[in-house]
Write a structure and sequence with these properties.
The structure holds 2 protein chains of 2 kinds. Chain A is an all-alpha fold. Helix content of chain A is about 70%, strand content about 0%. Classes of the chains: A mainly alpha, B mainly alpha. Chain A: Pfam families: NADHdh (PF00146).
């Protein structure tokens, strides 16, 4: 019976991240609009967009290959699996030990790999520019992320997310310099990875500075819906990741019963709301950078991560 | 299977070479020669597979080489593991050549050397004394040199072969000196005698540096890597696969055998040297790869990167062993050995793919390719699998070995030495950078070659290659997935080899729930390739089913949208160099001293604008060019000695004799 219950909880996690992701995107958009004194669309607008895209026909470029048609599903699946492995309302999920934080990053890397290939498939200049810039951002953001993982893993003594969350729940962790550096670096990486301002603009089209939107320019209909949903999932994943490591309060432990799960879900909703508000506030108060400023931004994140790791190599108590 | 099978297979391969010479250039001989190579490799590989787990090492002495000494051969767990790697690569290359060899323009220059090259690599791994090792090492170098020279009509191939020969001779010289120091004054030349004697610390350090130069130049450690990007494109594609995927592994075997087995207890600073070199090699190799337009050159530089990753693992193992943390050394060495196997699999696959593209289009320059996914579906799919594996994407095999290397790095704060405490995190950063740059590199390699629209007419006429080549590529692609999904099997399989070198092993992996791999403890880290694979496969199928049930099925083909301005000309696509431009701008200013110059004609002038990019190879300019210049200078000066009269020659000899006698007199 335990196995079935475990799998049910894991399934609930998968459904939860899928259902909440568009809502979170809608929330951020609404908050940004309100901060700019606009009314903004309803927070449920992303669901409507997705349904509309699903109902539309797909217009496929003449020389699109099978890779172009398969990529959206692979991107979505890899992102979904990664999102399902990050604890949202409960730790100790049954499949959490099938992949640690490094594997989660690599899964997101796979999604990026196929997205960049899809950008090159049609053979247009916009797709190419998007892919090329996305890979540049990725080559800097991913090592920064790995250094952040090193920092966390050296503090906690584990690369497993569940163990990390449980370790952080214990009051003895205290304030550490290295954890502070890791948090700042993680926020920077999250901004870059999700194509947010100041690195990229999620609301733009037809602008030479765009990255993510340029790669998916040729997508339409159900394929576009998959990609939109995947990027919503990815944004939510990063918020969940930051929340799970740095604010693990309210997470249900393994086998604590329905009430704990309900509290965990409510806490997660609260964290999403706070995260969304902070993101919207940040994005409305900063201007977008030129593309070749991004390496400096991410280089700073990489250095912070490396510094955190070095501190821990030098002394375990920093 | 009787243990002498390994040597028997070598004898068969030598025989096949003779047969190839006799048969000459007749068409029918291709299938026969490579078919026999395939059979010999499979048998030798199966034998090696059985020997890995065998308790007893098998040894024999053949009455060859120097009289009254004989040639010693021995297969222990480490040799057996590397024999397996060699013969796996050899079998795949033979199978591929059964088809590819028919397009060969000069078969009589390839077929006789191919089997002896395989035999040479087998012999190096089996050698059990210094003479045999050096002899077979040189044999391996010379046969591969002959293969690099196969297409000797092109001047660049001759240059590549010359540089390869020079670097190979330099490497052998270093190894010769290293063995000279190891054998000691008593001349204990057999490995057993060397193992028994403990060299003094100073001598041991000198040996380490010589082996780093000798084996490192063969493996492609920066800055000794210069021959790889020249020689690998020059050789026929299956030979490139062998040189890149297999011969560099034989070099790594040589390094492991001498440094971890023969040399005795390591000093901690050795590992600092090895790790730093490994980290620099990994990052520089992939950056060079990102700038290449020749597909095979790109793959050669990517080999440099992977050799760097392997050396990081070996360096960590040395660091742990120097601090008596044998269980951690076992983890680091397992990571390195797993990457050895993985790299052989995916790099052979990628070179086969490049060879198929070459035989279908006649082009190696990726700027002229594009759109091959429509013309060569199987090649492009297998190349995609190889690219994803080498870019370390889960659930394929490249990810597992890099993940294990990261886990080994996470164990190293326990190491007390300050030099290592500062170097290891930095190398960890370099490794992470190399891994992600490899992703960008292979998005570029696959995307520009196989996706988009054809950039030259040759691509339009391309056709899928023959069945043998396809079979070899499909087989290796399947192995990429297999090794990625069930890494626990492989980790358990290589336990005896790891035990031999580190005195400890990783815990058994097969007994775990769902076949997870757990380097230390489950609460610390675990990874399950099988579950990740099933998880991805399930969620993909759920998504596909759901979408096909819910969403509209309508699909219309139309011209590309491209923001409303689609252009029919394929030159408007992103090219390989434009894809690399952002990365070149970020890293190139430092590493390549990259300079871009834009010539913009005045308004009204109808000349096209020009963008010129200049990249400099600093290692070549700062290290090799001065050495070459010095040799030329000296040769110029010494050239005069060629034109002396007989009287002067005689007096020269007389003076030399006198001075030597003086030296001897003063010495004693």
């Amino acid at each position: 019976m335990d196995v079935i219950a475990d799998i049910a909880v894991q399934g609930a996690q998968m459904v939860l991240v899928l259902v909440l992701a568009p809502l979170f995107t809608g929330l951020v958009r609404k908050l940004k609009a309100r901060l700019l004194r606009r009314r903004g669309p309803s927070i449920f607008q992303p669901y409507r967009d997705l349904l509309r895209l699903l109902r539309k026909e797909v217009v496929l470029a003449e020389n699109a290959s099978w890779l172009f048609r398969v990529a959206p599903y692979l991107i979505f699946a890899a992102t979904w699996v990664a999102a399902a492995l990050v604890p949202t309302f409960a730790t100790g999920l049954v499949f959490s030990w099938s992949a640690d934080l490094i594997a989660i990053i690599a899964l997101l890397g796979s999604a990026r790999f196929f997205l960049a290939l899809a950008g090159l498939d049609i053979g247009t200049s916009f797709g190419g520019i998007g892919s090329s810039r996305e890979m540049l951002i990725g080559t800097l953001a991913e090592p920064a992320m790995i250094m952040i993982v090193f920092t966390l893993a050296l503090v906690v003594g584990s690369t497993q997310l569940a163990t990390m969350a449980e370790h952080m729940l214990v009051p003895g962790v205290g304030l550490r310099v290295s954890l502070g550096l890791a948090l700042i670096a993680l926020v920077m990486v999250a901004i870059a990875e999700n194509a947010r301002i100041p690195v990229d603009n999620p609301a733009t089209h037809l602008e030479l500075t765009m990255v993510h939107e340029a790669m998916v320019l040729e997508y339409s209909g159900r394929h576009l819906a998959m990609i939109e949903l995947a990027s919503a999932l990815k944004l939510q994943l990063y918020v969940a990741l930051i929340a799970c490591v740095f604010a693990p309060w309210g997470l249900a432990r393994d086998g604590e019963g329905i009430a704990a799960y309900a509290i965990g879900t409510l806490a997660f909703l609260g964290k999403l709301a706070v995260g969304g508000f902070l993101l919207a506030l940040f994005e409305t108060s900063i201007a977008k950078m030129r593309v070749f400023r991004v390496p400096e931004f991410l280089g700073a994140a990489l250095m912070l991560g490396l510094l955190g790791t070095l501190l821990l190599f030098v002394s375990r108590s920093l | 299977m009787p243990p002498a099978v390994g040597l028997g297979c070598v004898a068969v391969l030598m025989g096949v070479a003779v047969l190839a010479v006799i048969l000459g250039r007749s068409r029918a001989s291709t299938g026969l020669v490579y078919g026999l190579c395939l059979i010999a490799s499979v048998v030798a590989g199966a034998n090696a597979f059985l020997r890995v787990a065998a308790e007893e090492a098998w040894a024999t002495t053949l009455p060859l080489a120097l009289p009254w000494l004989g040639a010693h051969f021995r297969i222990d767990a480490l040799s057996a593991f590397f024999l397996l790697v060699v013969n796996l690569g050899g079998a795949a290359a033979s199978l591929y050549s059964m088809g590819y060899g028919r397009h060969e323009s000069a078969p009589q220059r390839v077929m006789p050397f191919f089997p002896v090259f395989l035999a040479g690599m087998n012999l190096v791994v089996m050698a059990d004394d210094a003479f045999t090792f050096l002899l077979t090492w040189e044999f391996m170098s010379l046969t591969s040199w002959a293969l690099v020279m196969a297409h000797h009509h092109e001047p660049e191939n001759r240059r590549a072969a010359t540089i390869y020969l020079l670097m190979a001779s330099f490497g052998t010289l270093c190894l010769l000196l290293a063995f000279g120091l190891l054998a000691g004054p008593d001349g204990g030349y057999s490995f057993a005698a060397i193992r028994a004697g403990q060299p003094a610390p100073g001598v041991a350090a000198l040996v380490l540096i010589l082996v780093l130069l000798g084996a490192g130049s063969k493996a492609g450690l920066v800055p000794l890597h210069v021959w790889l990007p020249l020689a690998h494109p020059a050789a026929p594609s299956p030979v490139s696969a062998l040189m890149s995927g297999v011969m560099t592994k034989v070099a790594i075997y040589g390094f492991l055998r001498i440094v971890l087995d023969l040399l005795g207890a390591p000093a901690w600073w050795w590992s600092l040297l090895v790790i730093t070199l490994g980290g620099i090699t990994a990052a520089l190799g992939v950056l060079y790869a990102l700038m290449q337009q020749d597909l095979k050159r790109l793959l050669a530089y990517s080999t440099v990167e992977n050799v760097g990753i392997i050396f990081i693992g070996i360096g960590l193992a040395l660091a742990f062993r120097a601090n008596a943390m044998n269980w951690a050394a076992a983890l680091a060495l397992t990571a390195a050995l797993l990457h050895v196997l993985n790299h052989t699999i995916f790099k052979s696959l990628l070179f086969f793919g490049a060879g198929s593209v070459l035989s279908a289009t006649g082009l190696r320059d990726i700027e002229q390719l594009g759109g091959l996914i429509h013309r060569m579906p199987v090649t492009s799919f297998t190349f995609l699998v190889g690219s994803a594996a080498i870019a370390a994407l889960p659930p394929l095999n490249g990810f597992v070995s890099e993940w294990l290397t990261f886990q080994a790095i996470l164990l190293s704060p326990e190491i007390p030495q300050w030099g290592l405490k500062l170097a290891i995190p930095a190398v960890g950063g370099l490794l992470a950078l190399a891994a992600t740059l490899a992703g960008a590199c292979f998005v570029r390699a696959f995307g520009i070659t196989f996706l988009g629209r054809p950039r030259s007419p040759a691509v339009g006429a391309a056709h899928e290659v023959d069945r043998f080549s396809l079979a070899a590529m499909i087989l290796l692609a399947a192995l990429c997935l297999f090794a990625g999904v069930l890494p626990g099997l492989l980790i358990d399989f290589m336990r005896p080899a790891v035990l031999l070198l580190t005195g400890d092993v990783m815990p058994h992996q097969l007994g775990r729930e769902w076949l997870s791999i757990v380097p230390i403890a489950e609460s610390r880290s675990s990874y399950n390739g099988l579950l990740v694979f099933v998880f991805i496969a399930l969620s993909t199928s759920v998504t596909v089913l759901g979408i096909h049930r819910l969403a509209s099925h309508a699909l219309r083909r139309g011209p590309a949208w491209d923001c409303g301005f689609p252009s029919a000309s394929p030159v408007t696509q992103y090219s390989a160099s434009s894809f690399a431009q952002p990365i070149r701008r970020v890293f190139g200013a430092l590493v390549f001293r990259a300079r871009e110059r834009v010539e913009m004609p005045a308004p009204g002038d109808l000349r096209p604008a020009r963008l010129q990019v200049r990249l400099r190879d600093l290692i070549w300019e700062l290290l090799y060019a001065p050495v070459a210049d010095a040799i030329w200078w000296a040769a110029d000066r010494l050239n005069r000695l060629q034109f002396l009269t007989i009287r002067r020659y005689l007096s020269l000899v007389f003076l030399a004799l006198i001075s030597l006698l003086l030296v001897v007199a003063i010495w004693t």
